[in-house]
Amino acid sequence: MYNLPSPETPLNQHSLGALELWLINLGAEKCTQNPCLWRWDNIAQWSAEIYFKQDELMIIWSEIDSEGEGKTSQFNFPYGLPRQDVEAALNHGP
Q1: Considering the domain boundaries, does residue 5 fall inside one?
Q2: What is the pTM of this model?
Q3: N or C: which end of the chain has fewer CB within 10 A?
Q4: Which domain holds residue 72?
Q5: Each residue of 15-74: pLDDT tens digit?
Q6: Please, what is the Cα angle at 83 between 14 and 38, to 5 degrees?
Q7: Residue 53 belongs to a domain with what CATH number?
């Protein structure tokens, strides 16, 4: 079993197992076809796809506006950022 480092620890100092545990704890689900992709639904307003890239964590948020139109936004987080900062941005959404 993996333990999570302190929230101030940069992502690049987490093991892969710890990163996966972190996403599971957030409620994300790993894609069975692509082990680098995780999907996370947050309430009914938006969802996110979380990609483990070579040099960064890429997040693509999908959101439905009041007219029912879908829109996406993307942000890349360097692995040197603390986990708590990335988690705060994820929870904030697009």
Answers
A1: no
A2: 0.85
A3: N
A4: 13-92
A5: 999 999 999 999 999 999 999 999 998 766 788 999 999 999 999 998 876 666 678 899
A6: 80
A7: 3.10.450
How far is 93 from 45, CA to CA, in rounded Å? 10
Which regions of the chain does DSSP assign to beta strands (E)? 29-30, 37-42, 46-52, 56-64, 70-78
Domain count, the chain: 1
CA distances from 73 to 16, 17, 48, 86, 88 (A): 26, 27, 9, 16, 16
The Cβ of residue 50 has, within 10 Å, a number of other Cβ atoms equal to 23
What pLDDT score was predicted for residue 90?
A: 87
Rounded CA separation 64/81 (Å): 29
